[in-house]
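Thread: Newbie trying to understand structure tokens

Hi all, I'm a second-year student working on a class project, and my supervisor (Dr. K.) asked me to get a predicted structure for one chain before our next meeting. I've only ever worked with sequences, so writing a 3D structure as a token string is new to me. If someone could post the tokens and maybe explain what I'm looking at, I'd be very grateful. Here's the chain:
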Amino acid sequence: MTKGYLSFVLHAHLPYVRHPEHEEFLEEQWFFEGMTETYIPLLDMCDGLTRDGIDFRFTMSLTPPLMSMMTDGLLQERYLRHLWKMIDLCNKEMHRTHHDRAFRPVVEMYHHKLNRARWIFEERWGRNLVAGFRHFQQLGKIEVMTCGATHGFLPLLRVSPEAIRAQIRVACDLHERHMGMRPRGIWLPECGYFPGLDEILWENGIRFFIADSHAILHADSRPKYGVYAPLFCPSGTAAFGRDYESSKQVWSAKEGYPGDYRYRDFYRDVGFDLDFDYVRPYIHPDGIRVMTGLKYYRITGPTDHKQPYSPHEGLEAAASHAGNFLFNRQRQSEFLCDVIGKPPIIVAPYDAELFGHWWYEGIDWLNFVMRKTSCDQNDVKLITPWEYLCWHPKNQMAHPSESSWGNKGYAEVWCNGTNDWIYRHLHEAAFRMTELARIYPTPDDNLRRALNQMARELLLAQSSDWAFIMNSGTMVEYAVKRTKEHIWRFTKLYEDIKNFSLDMNFVGELEWKDNIFPDIDYRVYA
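---
Reply by user tm_fold:
Sure, no problem. This is what the structure looks like when written as tokens:
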């Protein structure tokens, strides 16, 4: 008998980082790391589960910037070049560690995984991972959600309703272009919700979204089932709340599984550990040492004297923690089912990049959980939020409270002394975009291109990633530069249009650099 439902929700997102004007660009490394360590292994996991007849389910957002990078020919070519470079480094390491009993097993592991990643990327999915996720959605194993067009933090953009609508509409259009269907669910950027946003979601065909716990618990009507059943907003869109208990076991590096001493240490990388001349061909051309992904030590403990990583022990730890996680969900479901009188839905949302990238064994852990849930018990059933709504179409109605999943639960991460200066510019740009969209409903071809590029620049400037990076204190210069560049480009286009002095060479250059949303229609702002 099913006593509870478990819904894994993974949020896959990276900011749009594409610089065709440079042969190599440091921040594109974020995308390469995500591809090798998270997105390709997730698809490989799905292939294995399908092959073995495992009835698995999970929900995953693919944000428009990430989808756009995954399907961009330039970045696909650059990623493959990066992958071959890492395989070459691994081949050298196979030779260097030939007689090293401590490190040889981990080098062999990387050698196998990198070559398999190359095969999956180039041959299994023809360089287009979005096609892979679409395939598993069509099989009914994955529910792929969307996000804001550029992950704009919506509560701080709401002074312009047109800006909110554009973030949602453009995202849904791009999702349909790549997935063949409109998205049914959305991961709101940073889980940022405010009352009334659900109406815009409903207008665009969104039927559910993920919210943090306090959005549900602080709703305008007390939730009868807490976070263990969705709330229907007055618009009809359903809000699913995060389960704190299951999140903490995985999120916390101190109290959760990722801090286990047997797991791989993220911060020790051969890009920094090995001789400079040896690794120079594999780091940045300017000589900047960067992570290569080859990491040979385990966490060990609070010490600088790290022990060699053992792939076998890491896998054993992942299997043990998967069993513990499932046991806890069984007991949690049994207790909650008795208390609330029906099977609860336990929503476990995480950043997808936690698995494989930050927590190297995380995808192995997820694989074990899926298999154990399907084969070892009958108390807990894997489900997606959309499936739950189909099976349980009647739920309590209430307005969730304004919230986010950032520090302290509201907007402080994205609006504080480090980044609050950006919003007067973003708001003014949104007003200007709306102004021109209404003035020019039927432009000529050149003006249409310029207005569409203005919309792209505004959306890129609104990305919450830039404010987040400014707050975190790392790569701040790049985040400030990106914000200022997009606002400057937008403003120049605006002034050129107002002064009837449009420079089509400038427009063409921006279309080449910032080519996201090829089908955008600026009139979404009207």
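A couple of things are worth pointing out once you decode it. Residues 311-340 form the longest helix (30 residues). The domain at 415-525 is CATH 1.20.1430.10 (immunoglobulin/albumin-binding domain-like). Feel free to ask follow-ups in this thread.
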